[in-house]
Write a structure and sequence with these properties.
seven-stranded parallel sheet, 311 residues, single chain, two-stranded antiparallel sheet, globular
Length: 311
């Protein structure tokens, strides 16, 4: 069945069952956004995501926190954790510990009643392997189950991507034996780099075992690359374990948008993912140098949009 036909059938099915979905999935006390809503007016994804499954990637606060390891940087990092807890978050996804030990960071998580089910940390490459044993040890202290680099190398050849996948599979095997999971977080180039009818993302999935390596699918970047996230979810099923939830504004340079203000149909994507999603991670890449950018705004609106809460 062609992709266009498959999408047409899916759209027809959703239209026919829309009234049933509203009662069965959302519940009688909730309402779907009106069909005539304009961008930015919807405050709810349609079907609430449980707060226990919502997280936030702290890269959103990268410029605010900074990249140092001094006391001032650590204080700003703690301020972010406190604020997120007050917004209602129960989970965060760190990209740095700001020079803190895993033990100290775990103390801060407990202090603000937060958990870190996933973490971005450099797991290395075949050319420059990382100290995976130390990463696994820190993860145990932090309570991290899923971990992986914040991005993949921008390799050009299929051989390079294959070698990278084989390296990741080895790391993933180490993780499995430690009771953890290695995840691959994508940008656009994994879908824009192709070898025949296969993308670099396909190469990564095909040369790693599903019991060793899973995907943290970034919905903005896969959409930006011109690929339908639902197609990826249908292709790889429960290997897509985590979703990075950030929106895309088609009208303004296809820029990253606050969740709920853009054009990505999160409700349809979440339905397609079904029950395999372990974490919905709100993210908004910072606009470095833009004094008007408020890193606290996107997480607060994103949490409210996913959980259908009013704050």
């Amino acid at each position: 069945m062609s992709r266009n036909l498959r999408h047409a059938l899916r759209a027809a099915l959703f239209a026919a069952l829309s009234s049933l979905l509203l009662v069965g999935l959302v519940g009688p006390a909730s309402a779907a956004p009106p069909a005539t809503e304009e961008r930015g007016e919807s405050s709810c994804v349609g079907r609430p995501v449980p707060a226990r499954l919502v997280s936030v990637q702290l890269w959103t606060f990268a410029e605010h926190i900074g990249f140092g390891t001094d006391a001032a940087t650590q204080a700003r990092h703690e301020e972010v954790l406190r604020s997120l807890s007050e917004m209602g978050y129960r989970n965060v996804e760190p990209f740095t510990l700001s020079g803190m030990t895993a033990e100290r960071y775990a103390e801060l998580l407990r202090k603000y009643r937060l958990q870190a089910p996933a973490r971005h940390v450099d797991v290395g490459t075949p050319e420059e392997p990382a100290d995976i044993e130390q990463i696994l040890a820190d993860n145990r202290v932090l309570g991290v189950t899923y971990f992986g680099s914040g991005g993949t190398p921008q390799y050009e050849s299929e051989a390079e991507w294959t070698a990278y996948a084989e390296y990741l599979d080895t790391v993933g095997e180490q993780a499995r034996k430690a009771g953890q999971w290695l995840m691959v977080h994508n940008h656009d180039w994994e879908f824009e780099t192709t070898f025949g009818d296969r993308t670099a993302f396909d190469v990564l999935m095909q040369h790693t075992e599903r019991r060793h390596v899973v995907s943290q699918l970034d919905l903005y970047w896969v959409t930006y690359a011109g690929t339908d996230p639902i197609d990826v979810i249908e292709e790889y099923g429960n290997r897509i374990r985590l979703l990075h939830v950030k929106d895309l504004n088609e009208d303004v340079e296809r820029r990253i948008e606050i969740v709920g203000r853009g054009d990505i149909d999160f409700a349809a994507i979440f339905r397609a993912a079904g029950g395999s999603t372990r974490s919905y991670v709100v993210e908004h890449d910072p606009r470095f140098g833009d004094v008007a950018f408020d890193p606290f705004e996107a997480p607060e609106e994103g949490f409210a949009h996913l959980t259908c809460s009013t704050r």
